[in-house]
Amino acid sequence: MLILVNLKTYAEGTGGGAVRIAELCAEASEETGERIAVAPQAADLYRVSRETDAEVWAQHVDAVEPGSNTGHALPEAVRGAGAVGTLINHSERRLTLADAGGAVEWAREVGLETIVCSNDASTSAAASELEPDYVAIEPPELIGTGIPVSRAEPEIVEGAVAVSDVPVLCGAGISTGEDVEAALSLGAEGVLLASGVVKADEPGEALRDLVSF
Ligand code: G3P
After folding, report:
1. Does residue 187 have a pLDDT over 60?
2. pTM recorded for the entire structure
3. I need a labelling partner for 196 at 20 to 30 A (CA). Which of 88, 175, 206, 209 fits?
4. CA distance 44 to 94
5. How many domains in the chain?
6. Which residues have CB under 6 Å of ligand 1?
7. 138 labelled catalytic
C-alpha cells in the first residue's frame, strides 16, 4: 500500500510546515511499517529531503531535457533534489496526453517512480497506456471536500481498476482509516490525500488513523 500526502500549495501548512508534516509522515511510516510518502512544493523538495527521513515525491515534472527551458521542472533536477517519484497530470496541474507521456518517459529515465492522475475511467485507461508505476483516480469535484471518493463514489474507483493495467490509487476527500480501507476493498493499492492531513488539527493523529483499520 502507498499513501501519498500531497502538500499542494498549502503554504506552511497548519501543522508547522512542509518539514514538520514530512517528519510526521516518516514517523507514522516507521511506526506502522506502511509506505507513507509526502509531496512538497518544488521549492521545498531539497530541504524536506535533506532534513527529514520521509520518502519524498514531487507534485509535477515536465517532459524536458536539460537545456533551454525556462520555468520548467526538470526530472533530473527533481531527482537530484531527493525525490524518488513524481505525480504527473494532477487535476490541479493538467498536461496534454503527449506531455504526460513525455513526462513519464523522462521521469523513468532518471529513476523517478511515476503516478499519472486521471479523473474517470477513460482517462484512467489512457493513463495506464503510458505505463507509469501507478494511475491515481481523483474526481476533481470531490477534492478538498472531505467526501471520500472511496465511499461516496465507489464505482469510479472500480471503473479505474477495471481498465488499468498498472496499480491504481484513489484520492479526493480521503481522511480516515475507513476511507482507506474502502479504497483497498475496491481494488486500489493506496491513496492520495491532502487536506485530511494538512488541515487536520493534529496531522500526526490523522496519519496514524489512516492505517488504523
Ligand atoms: O492529490 C490529492 C488530492 O487532490 C486530494 O485532495 O484535499 O481531497 O485530500 P484532498
Report:
1. yes
2. 0.97
3. 88
4. 21
5. 1
6. 6, 90, 138, 143-144, 171-174, 192-196
7. yes
